[in-house]
Amino acid sequence: MATINENYLNLQGSYLFQTVARKVREFEAGNPDARLIKLGIGDVTQPIAPAILNAMHKAVDEMGAANTFHGYAPDLGYEFLRTAIVENEYRKRGIDIEPDEIFVSDGAKSDCSNIQEIFDQNNLVAVCDPVYPVYVDSNVMAGRSGAFNEEKKLYSNLIYMPCTESNGFIPDFPKINPDLIYLCFPNNPTGVAITKERLQAWVDYALKIGAVILYDAAYEAYISDDTLPHSIFECSGAEYCAIEFRSFSKNAGFTGLRLGFTVISKKLKLSGKSVHAMWARRHGTKYNGAPYIIQRAGEAVYSPEGNQQINAQIATYMKNAQFLKTALKDAGYTVYGGENAPYIWLKTPNGLSSWDFFDLLLNKAGIVGTPGSGFGPNGEGFFRLTAFGTYENSVEAIERIKGL
Ligand code: PLP
Question: Are 28 and 132 in a shared domain?
Fold first, then answer.
């Protein structure tokens, strides 16, 4: 008799964004004439840049001719893309990564959740609180979380690292030594970036205790401060203790195209076994490669025109972020993030709960944001706004918030 994976029964409620979507649907049904401003889900809004589109058109045509047709892609990605990634993302920053240490995939979400498959079931996992929910949920599915504590709103076997105003939203080392440590900078949801010195301290800590850092750098393209690290491999020793996840979603608008990559140095070994070789085996067995057309699109991100065009898009989003942050501060709000990330993390006024503030903004101002408590208990009392809307909408959102 077939039985289910009971770990799935441990998953909590509906996913944060499903609850937001339900509330929005209900509001729209009751207010058909309202014009909502959506600053909730972290999806980009600008279309694919022309240089990238041209590369895709060309690749589409190639697929239609027998002599240029491409079938299954190489397991780890096409050489042309892996070389472009290494040159532009790593060697330009003085980081020594080889093309065969890049694993091309369909995005950071799948990679950062699938990666835990290659680690022991009993590994202790540390996550930030608040956190991108995927790290927690994928470890719940794998049976690594323990039971959910309703009162504390935490899983008993996960190590939560509070990210609060008092530590500047950068976690301190946990009291119990973890085996796997998820870090994400610039951070979703707080919008805060980490300094090289603090990241180096995390690398030193991981090396000392024998842990592996799972580093999600999906938002590195939004870093405006030149002193901040774009990659964990800028830190010395990281090749022995870190895995990095990157995405084309937020830098080049590939949320609907799907492309990302994971970097594992061949120097990363656990009990003498190569983690790179294990992930290569897993990737080759369970994944048949990102589409040729999309990998050509990814290559075009690094062409001079592509690069210039995506930088212009990022600048547009960051203009929104800067505007939202300054205007909210002027309106008396306490605001974080928004300088090296497309997220604004604001403290709810008058001690309102995150969901009460969500309801207030939705019902009285027609603005959709994301309640901080949906990202973990330490997100309670906070609220996330994204800079992915238009400038006009950002301006109107502020007018509406001021009028509350
Ligand atoms: N990592 C973080 C921290 C994210 O916020 C997101 C998307 O919002 C992702 C990964 C997903 O990236 P991708 O679209 O490449 O799957």
Answer: no
